[in-house]
């Protein structure tokens, strides 16, 4: 599910952060998501927060929003191939905010329960929050062309076979079928056991 939050992550948070601080990594926050390095930018359900100022999305394009925040709009060039497809002149439309941001919050909480010593990363190119542990990726996506709703995934770097593995990249389950962060962490634990064989 391509939405403006994915575009915000790429064009207004990760791109400017990459140009200033050399990283595209983002983090989930209680109200949405944010950069991990300078510039300090947070995306919430209805507004961008920069230096304590709230800049509402309504009626803005990504370029206008970035300009109002004093940021240079645009994705991190040459870092990854996939992305949201959002362009600076596109309007920011945040319908489905509670579903999108809720999925990220559940994913972040589940990953912290599952692997408390690791820090989950919100990756802007796929707009998913995840970790890697013992050559297996674990995370939650807000939805994509393959699965159009938020889902949890377990993706071994080397393909596995068996009943648990139901998609080309490993295993995926819709969040709607799993439930809360504890249940999602349980899915990750099941995936870890299945990956270990």
Give a quick rundown of the structure:
The protein is α+β, with helices and mostly antiparallel strands. 32% of the residues lie in helices and 23% in strands.
Tell me what you see in this structure.
The protein contains 5 helices and 10 strands, in the order αβββββααβββββαα. The protein has 197 residues and is of the alpha+beta class. Strands 1-2-3-4-5 form a 5-stranded antiparallel β-sheet, with helices on one face. Strands 6-7-8-9-10 form a 5-stranded antiparallel β-sheet. A hairpin with a 2-residue loop joins β4 (47-50) and β5 (53-56). α1 (4-21) crosses α2 and α3 (97-114) crosses α5 (181-196). The protein is elongated, with a radius of gyration of 17 Å. 41% of the residues are buried.
Identify the notable features of this structure and list them briefly.
197 residues; 5 helices; alpha+beta; 10 strands; 23% strand
How are the secondary structure elements laid out?
Elements: H1 4-21, E1 26-29, E2 32-35, E3 41-44, E4 47-50, E5 53-56, H2 62-69, H3 97-114, E6 121-123, E7 128-133, E8 136-141, E9 151-156, E10 171-174, H4 175-178, H5 181-196
Antiparallel strand pairs: 1-2, 2-3, 3-4, 4-5, 6-7, 7-8, 8-9, 9-10
Helix pairs in contact: 1-2, 3-5
Instruction: Give the helix level as a range of percent.
Output: 25-40%
Radius of gyration: 17 Å
Main sheet specs: 5 strands, antiparallel
Query: What structural category arises from helix and sheet content?
Result: alpha+beta
How big a fraction of the residues is strand? 15-25%
With strands numbered from the N-terminus, the spatial order across the biggest sheet is 1-2-3-4-5
Mean pLDDT: 96
Any low-confidence stretches, pLDDT <50, length ≥5?
none
Globally, the shape reads elongated
Tally of individual helices: 5
Order of helices and strands: HEEEEEHHEEEEEHH
End-to-end distance: 32 Å
Number of DSSP-assigned strands: 10
